[in-house]
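Submission checklist for the structure archive. All mandatory fields must be present; incomplete records are returned to the submitter.

[x] Identifier: Zinc metallo proteinase
[x] Organism: Sphaerulina musiva
[x] Residue count: 751
[x] Sequence attached
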Amino acid sequence: MVLLTVLLASLTDAASLVLRQSDTLSSGAKRPPQAPRIFNDTAESLQEIVAGVQSREDSVVQDIITNVKPEDATFENTVVPYMQHEDQDTLFLSNVGLYTYVSQKPELRDAADNVTGQIGDITQATYLNEDLFERVNATYYKQVNDTNLSLESRNLLGSFWGQFAGTGLAVEKGEKRDRYQNASNELEDLQDAFAQALVDDKTVLWFTKDELNGTRDDTLSTLEKGTGENEGKLKVDFQIDSDLLAISTHCTNETTRKALTIASANRAPDNPERLKKAAGLRDELARLLGDANFAASVIASNLAQTPEAVHKLLDDVQAKVTPYWLKKLDHLKELKKNDTGNADHFFLWDSNFYQTMSTEQEYQVDKDKIKQYFPALSTIKALLDLYAGLFHLHFVKIEGKDRDDLSPTGKGEDITWQEDVEIYAVWNDDSYSTQTKRDEGEFVGYLYLDLYQREGKAPDEYSLSMEPGFVTKDGSRHYPLAVLVTNIKESATDTPSLFDRGDVEAILHELGHCMHQLTSRVTYGRLHGPSSTPPDFYEMPSQMMENWAYERAVLKQLSKHWSYLSDESKAAWQKQQNDTNAVQPPEQLPDDLIDEILKARNAYTSYAELLQVFFADYDLKLHELPTHEDAANLDPTEIYNKLFLDIIKIEGPEALGEGFHWGHKESTFHHIMSSYQGAYYAYHWSRIYGKDLFYTAFKADPFSAEAGGKFRKLILEPGGSGDLMQMITDFLGREPNNDAYYEDLELDKPM
C-alpha cells in the first residue's frame, strides 16, 4: 500500500512536470515563454542576495579594467558587458523594491529597506571607480556623437557616463572633485533629514465637536477621542492629510480652519534652513560641473532643455489663466460675504471651504449616486478591456490549476506575494503582430494587480515598474513585469466596494504607467519604460490617459450599476430600497449624471493650474540663482509666501500684520528635496503635451485602436531609447503646442 501511494505520488509529480513543460496550461491557455517570478523570500534570503550582487559587480568591473586599456575602450567592450550584467542583476533585485511597498510582513519590509541601502552602496562604489571611469570617459568622448552607433546605444552611453559625472568624477581631480563629493554627501544628508523631519513631526490639535461644526460624520467618526485634559475633544493628526482636507473643506468654523492652516504651515520648523542649504549646495555642484546654475544643469537633459523654455511656458499659462481665476476669486469673495457679511479679506483658510460650497451649491454633483456605477472589481476589469482595445493587447488571468502549472516550484501560491494578488499574462493581439511583423500573438509580459487594503501596505493608488524588458546576452528577450497597486477596502455590507470618479481617473493614470512599462521594447533594460525617460516626458502618457475619465462614451463603457453584478446584488439593492419589486436604475451611468461630471470638471481648475505654476516657479527661484553668492541671501519662507500671494492672490496672516514669516509651508514641499528639484515644472509640461496628444489623436474617437496602436508604437515602445521630442512630433505630425490645453480649460466659458 505504501509502495502504491509512493508510485501514485510519483506519477502525479511527473504529470505536473509534463504540464509545466507543455505549450499549454491546464485551462488550455497558451503558456507564456517566460515563467513568472517566485515570491517565497524571507528576511534571511533577501540578505543573502547582497553577497552575490557584490561578487558579480566586482567581477564585471574588474574584467573590464583588466581586459580593456583606456585607449582601446569602445561601446562594445566597455559599456555592453556592464549593461548585460546590470540587466541580469535586476532579476535578483526586483522583489526587493516591491516588498518595501506591499509586504504584509514587517521583517520582510525592514530587510528589503536594508538590502536596498546596501545595494546602493555597491553601485555607488562602481560609479566612484576611477579606473572604470577612465574607460567609460574615453568611450564617451570617442563615440557619443558617432552615428555608426544606434541612437539607443548613444543614449545608453550618455546615461552611463552621466552616473559617473554625478559622483564627481567628471570634475577636475583634486580640490574641486573632493569638494564636489563632500557637497554631494552633505546634500544627501540634508535631504534625508528633511524627509525624516516630516515623518517625525507630531503636530496635533484638539477640537470640540462644535468647533468642527459642518465636518462630515464619516470624518468625525475616525478622529481619536480625547481623555484627561482633552476630554470631550477630538484629535486632528497632521500626519493624516485626508482628515485635514475633509475638515478644511466642510468645517463652518473659520477660527478652526485658520488654526489648521497656521499649524500646517509650521510643521518641521528646521526644514526651511535645510532647504536653503540644499539650494546652495546644488548651485555649487552645478557650477563645479561648468553649468550656469542647478536648474540649467537639470533641465538640459529634459524635453524643455533650457530654463528659458520653462519660463516661457509658465508665463504663458499664468497670463492666460489668471484673468479667469480672478473672476472665480471674486465669486468666492461674494459667497463669503453672503455667508459672513464681510469679505474684505479672502484668506488661505477660506479657499477650500468656499470652493467646496460653490461646487456643491452650483454644480450639484451627486458623488454618492455616481459611485454606485463604479463597483471596484468590475471597473478594474472594464479598464483593462479599454486598454486592451486601445493598445492591441490581450490580458489572460492566471488562476486555479494554471498557477501551479506556471509556477517554477509547482506551487501556484508562490507566484504572487499575497494570496489575493491577481496575475495576468499579457499578449499582443494578432492584428498588432501582423502590423509589426512579429510572431503571431507575441507575449508582452506580466501584469500584477494588488487591489486590497492591508496592514503594512503603502496607501493610495500607484504603479511599480518591477522589472524591465531587454535582450539577453544570448539574443533572447526578457519580458517586463508591471504592478498596479490600489487600496480597496473590502465591503462589510451587501454593497460592494465602490470607486468614486476620482479613483477611476487615478487608476487610468497608474494603469497608463503600467501600459508604458509593459509595451516598451528596447535592447537594454536601463532604457526600458517610463522610468528611463526625463520627468517632463515620464508623466505625459499617463496624464494623457486621465482624459478618458471625462469622455461620455468611455464613462458609459466603464460603468455598471452594482445591482447588475449578479442576481444576489439585485436582491440586495432592492432590499435597501425596502421594495423587493423596485425597478433597477439604468445599468450604465446615465446622461444626467455624466452632465453633472462634465459641467463641474473645470469649476476651479484655474486655481489648480495656477497652484502648479506657483510650485514650479518657487522651485526655479531656489535653483536658478544668478550668482553663487545669492545662495547665502535666500529666504525660502519669504519667497514662498510672497510668491503665493503674487500668483494666487489669496491672503495669509501677512494681511493681518504678521509679516511673511507667519508660517513656512515650504517645509512640506518634499518634491524638491527628493527627485523633482529643478524640474517641478515637469508636471505641467507633461500635462500640456498630454492634452495635445489626446485632442489630436483620440478626442474624436477615444476607442480608436488605430490611434492607440500608433501611440504604442511611436510613444510607448521606445522607452528612453529614442529622440523623445522627435517621437512626439512624429506622432502629432507637427511640433507640440498649448492649444488643446487651453481649449480643455474652457477659459472662454461663461461663469
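[x] Structure attached
Curator remark: The two ends are 85 Å apart (CA to CA). The CA atoms of residues 97 and 384 lie 25 Å apart.
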